[in-house]
Amino acid sequence: MLGTFSYQNATKLYFGDDSLQYLNDELPKYGKTVQLIYGGGSIKRNGVYDAVMEILTANGKTVVEDAGVMPNPTVDKLREGVQLARDNKVDLLLAVGGGSCCDYAKAVSVSVHCDDDPWEKYYIRFEEPDCAIVPVGCILTMAGTGSEMNAGAVITNHAQKLKIGHVFDEAVMPKFSILNPVFTFSLPKRQMAAGIYDIFNHICEQYFSGEDDNTSDYLAEALMKSLIHSSLIAVENPEDYEARSNIMWTATWALNTLISRGKTTDWMVHMLGQAVGAVTDATHGMTLAAVSLPYYRYILPYGLPKFVRFAKEVWNVAPDGKTDAEIAAAGLAAMENWMRTIGVTLRLSELGVTEDMLDAITDATILLDGGYKVFTRDDVVKVLKESL
Ligand code: NZQ
Ligand code: ZN
Fold it and tell me: Could you give the 3-state DSSP secondary structure of residue 310?
C-alpha cells in the first residue's frame, strides 16, 4: 500500500431475510416525524410498503410521504423534497427503494437546513455541507449502487443536460441500512442485470488504477469472482436466495469506500455513463455496460500489467505461450461473454443514442485523471463512437 489515507464508515447494516424487524431498534433513536421516501410504486406491489408502514405506526411515528422518486432523481424533485422536509420539520429521512431513493434522501439531508440552492452549492461548486444534516436511513430493494453504505448522491439536471455525483464526507452516510435480499426478488430481470453490472464496474473503476502492490486490489478480485459466480446462478434462477444475498453484500462492499483505499481510482466509465444518462435518462447500469468494452480496450495498452492480472486472476485465462497483449485481450473477451450472458446492453444505440447526440454527451463528460490514461475530449469522442 503506497499512499496515506483515513478510513471510517458510519453506517450500521442489518442483513438477512428477517432484517426489517431491526427497524424497531433504530426508530426510537430519532424524533417523531419520518419522511418516507420511495419511488414509482414497486414497494406497494411487493408488500414492502405495508411492512414498513406497520413498523412506523407501531413506533408512533408521524409519516410524511414523499413518493415518486424517479430513477436518476432530478434536481426539481430534490427541491420539492427539501420543501416537504422543511414544512414538516422532519426528524428522519427513510428511503425505501434502490440507489435513486437513497441518493435522493442524502441530497435532501444536506439541503433542508441550507439556504443556498442545492444544485449550485453541491453539484456545481462542489461545496461541503455547512449546515445541520438530517439523518438518513435506507431500506434497500435493489442491489447495485452501494448507496446504502456510502455518501454519494447523484442528481440529474435535465435543463442543463448534466448528471453529477457528489461524494460527501462520512457524516452524510446513512445512519443505518436494512438489506433484505428477498426484497430484491421482485426486480425485473433487466434491472437485476443492470445492478449486477453496476457493481462489477464499481470494482473495475477502483481496480484499474495504480501500479503498487495493494491489498485493495486483492479484495477487488475476490469481490469480482464472487459476483461473477453468483450472477450466473441468479440469471438462471432469480429467486436463488444464496446468490441474490451474495450479490447484495458484494454491492455494498464494492462501493463503501473500502477498496478505494490507497488508490487513485479511475471512474471514467462512470463519467461517460453519467453523461449518457444526462442526455438519455437511460438505466444507470446499462449506460456503463454500453461504453465499458470500448473504453477498456482503448486504455488497455496504458495499463497492460493490470489487464493481464485481471485476465489471469478474475477470468482464469491461461498464459499458454500467449503474449501479454493477447492474455489481456482474452480477459476482456471473457468479460464480454459474461456481459452477454447476464443480458446487459453492449451498444449505446440500444439506449436510443444517435450520432447527433454525441456532442452533447461529450460536453457532459467530466474528465478525471486517476486512471491509466488521462482522457482528452478527443479520446471521449473516439470511445463514444466505438460504443454506438
Ligand atoms: O421506482 P420504483 O417503482 O421503486 O422502481 C424502481 C426503478 O424503476 C425499480 N425497483 C427497485 N427495487 C425494486 C424495483 N422494482 C421491483 N422490485 C424491486 N425490489 O428499479 C428501478 C431502478 O431503481 P433505481 O433506484 O433507479 O436503481 P439503482 O439502484 O440502480 O439507482 C440508480 C441511481 O443511483 C445512482 C445512479 O446514477 C442513478 O441515479 N448511483 C449512485 C451511486 C452512489 N450513491 O454511490 C453510485 C452509482 O454509480 C450510481 O451512479
Ligand atoms: Zn454505478
Answer: helix
Q: Whole-angstrom distance between the N-terminal and C-terminal Cα of the chain?
A: 38
255 and 144 both lie in a single domain: no
Bridge partners (DSSP) of residue 74 are 156
Check residue 263 and give its pLDDT: 95
Question: Could you tell me if 237 and 191 are in contact, meaning their C-beta atoms sit under 8 angstroms apart?
Answer: no
Query: Residue 326: CB partners within 8 Å, gap ≥ 6?
Result: none
Whether residue 304 is contained in a domain is answered as yes
For the CA atoms of 136, 139, 144, 145, what is the dihedral angle to 10 degrees? -10
User: How far, in Å, is the centroid of ligand 1 from the Cα of 72?
Assistant: 7
Write the CATH number for 274. 1.20.1090.10
The domain of 102 spans: 12-183
Helices (H) and strands (E) in the chain, counts: 15, 8
Do residues 102 and 145 lie in contact, with contact meaning Cβ atoms separated by under 8 Å?
yes
Separation of alpha carbons 135 and 69, rounded Å = 18
Nearest ligand to the C-alpha atom of residue 144? 1
Q: What is the mean pLDDT of each run of 10 residues along the chain (388 residues)?
A: 88 98 98 98 97 98 98 98 98 98 98 97 97 98 98 97 96 98 98 98 98 96 98 98 98 97 96 98 98 98 98 97 98 98 98 97 98 98 98
pLDDT at 1: 75
Q: What are phi and psi of 4, to 5 degrees?
A: -115, 150
Closest residue by Cα to atom 20, ligand 1, is 191
Q: Which ligand is nearest to the CA of 143?
A: 1
Neighbours of 385 (CB within 10 A): 12
| Amino acid at residue number 153 | A
CATH number at residue 125: 3.40.50.1970
Residues having CB within 6 Å of any atom of ligand 1? 39-43, 46, 71-72, 97-101, 103, 141-142, 144-147, 150, 152, 154, 165, 183-184, 186-187, 191, 195, 198, 255, 270, 284-285
Parallel/antiparallel/unpaired status of strands 162-167 and 152-157: antiparallel
Q: How many A from CA of 155 to the centre of ligand 2? A: 13
Rounded to the nearest angstrom, the distance between the alpha carbon of 198 and the centre of ligand 2 is: 5
